[in-house]
Design a protein that fits this description.
three-stranded antiparallel sheet, about 130 residues, about 50% helix, mainly alpha
Length: about 130
């Protein structure tokens, strides 16, 4: 009759396989990473620049509090800031021209009018200005 030895007993003659591999540790969680990615994506859309900027700032603050970096949030802040600056510049140049054209049509009344090298087409609900050179 043979005696049974427990597995892994050093006195046993049967080899024991290698120990199972250690489980990989999950990647560290970066607070604000998802917000940074969402804000980064929103920063590419002109109408959503401001929302993207706010989300990226929140994400960057959360990451900094956890002593972690967040490249998406930083890139989103830069891109959204540039987009907002361009939108403000366009508005600053366009709004005064539209107001001037609307006031000119209001002063001239309905119809087609020639003022200098510009032709104003004025209706009760809209106006059109063509500049000839």
């Amino acid at each position: 009759m043979t005696s049974l030895t427990p597995l892994g007993d050093p006195s046993s003659s049967t080899p024991v396989g290698p120990p199972p591999p250690a489980l990989k540790q999950p990647a560290p969680v970066v607070p604000g990473r998802i917000l940074g990615i969402v804000g980064f994506a929103l920063s590419f859309f002109a109408v959503l620049n401001l929302a993207g900027l706010v989300l990226c700032i929140i994400a960057l603050v959360r990451s900094k509090r956890a002593d972690s970096g967040n490249g998406f949030a930083l890139a989103g802040i830069i891109i959204a800031s540039i987009g907002i600056a361009i939108a403000v510049l366009i508005a600053a140049l366009t709004i005064p021209m539209l107001v001037d054209a609307a006031l000119t049509c209001q002063r001239l009344g309905e119809g087609v009018h020639q003022v200098g090298n510009a032709t104003y087409t004025c209706t009760p609900t809209s106006f059109r200005v063509f500049h000839s050179m």
